[in-house]
Structure formats: C-alpha cells, structure tokens
Amino acid sequence: QLQLQESGSGLVKPSQTLSLSCAVSGGSITSREYSWSWIRQPPGKGLEWIGYIYDVGNTVFNPSFQSRVTLSVDRSNNQFSLMVSSVTAADTAVYYCARRRSNYGYHDHWGQGALVTVSS
Amino acid sequence: DLQMTQSPSSLSASVGDRVSITCRASQSISDYLNWYQQQQGKAPKLLIYAANILQSGVPSRFSGSRSGADFTLTISSLQPEDFATYYCQHAWTFGQGTKVEIK
Question: What Rg value do the Cα atoms of chain A yield, rounded?
Fold first, then answer.
C-alpha cells in the first residue's frame, strides 16, 4: 500500500525559507503515470494546490506561488521536497504531499499533513 | 482565470437523506473534475474522478454527474461517517468546500 509521509520544520521565522520533504513508501516515485504534488490548507480554510513535480524533475506551479516555490525530487531516496522562500504569517498552514494521476489530475494518495507555523 | 464555484458552502442533513453538492466551472473543463471528502483533522480522500468514476473502495452511495459546466456530487443515503467537508477540484483549482453537518 502506497504511503506518503511529510517531514520538516514545524516553525519558521518570517522572511525565512520553509522546507518540507515527502517520503514515499510502498511504491516507486519513478512513474510516467503519476506526478507528485504539494497542497496546503491554512487553519480553518480550504485547500490550495501549490505545484507538482515529475520523477524526471519537470515542474508545474500554481501561478500564485511560482516565484517563491522550489520543488525537487530525489529518486534514489524515493522522496520529493518543497521549499517556500520569504514566508509570512499567511504561509501558516497544514502542508500535504500527494500523488497525482497525470491524465486526470486527481490525487489518490495523501500524506497525513504537516503543520507549519510562521512566527517569530 | 478558471473559477470553480461550489455550492452550498454548508448544509444540514439527517442520516438517510439524499444530499447533492454542485461545482460550476467558469469555462469548459470537459470531464476533468474530481471530488474529495475531508474529515476533521485528516487528509482529503478521493471519492470521484473524471466527473463520475467512483474511486476504488468508495461506497456506492457516492456518485458524480455532469450537466454542461455543472458538476454534482450526490450522496444517496447519508451515513454518520459522511459528515465532513467536500471539495471539488480541477487542475490547480479547488472549490471553496461544502461542510455537511448533522441536522
């Protein structure tokens, strides 16, 4: 059974860089059928898709995030990562990693989520 | 920019009720519309993809349909575990969510 697990710093100071990783187990990150997404949810609010990355490193971003976000993939360790620079309190959210089916664009496996708080 | 307008934002219903949630796309998206359920404090769960295809393991009381630019998620007989928030999604856009509460 495919499982995804987020890890990273839960507290980030304003103006610094948020960094999270997502470890994939029970399956390979190397796939033409799937890409790997990051989605966030501010407290009490809805879902906001950040971007996704393919195993070969190609990326697609939500235009709202494109200038501040970096996605990377580590095929040897079966994981992918997110960095968001110049964070503010508005970046406080639960961050989810998820597997995205390439043709339909749906997300069929999700991590449990990681709360990141931006505060001094 | 594509807009996904989901309605209602909340509803109250009883166990056994038939419930429908609608998502309207501001432009043509063919059948590329997905539905998720999110229980409080948990990750979203895929229910329906491509407008009307039931994800493996999801109960058959959930169904999806499309009429033009309007997409509908229907729960035929609401169960206690169905009280949750539901989201539609196309590409990088999620609907605003519909919270289904106990009447």
Answer: 13
Verify cis geometry, omega within 30 degrees of 0, for the bond prior to B8: yes
- Residue of chain B whose Cα is closest to the Cα of A110: B43
Q: Which two tokens stand for residue B8?
A: 């209602």
Q: What is the mean pLDDT of residues A61-75?
A: 92
Percent helix, strand and coil across chain B, each to the nearest 5 = 5, 50, 45
> Most A CBs within 10 Å: which of B42, B90, B92, as the mutation test of the A interface?
B92
Contact by Cβ (8 Å): A35, A41: no
Does residue A66 carry a pLDDT above 80? no
Q: Does A102 reach chain B within 8 Å, measured CB to CB?
A: no
Beta bridge partners of A114: A95
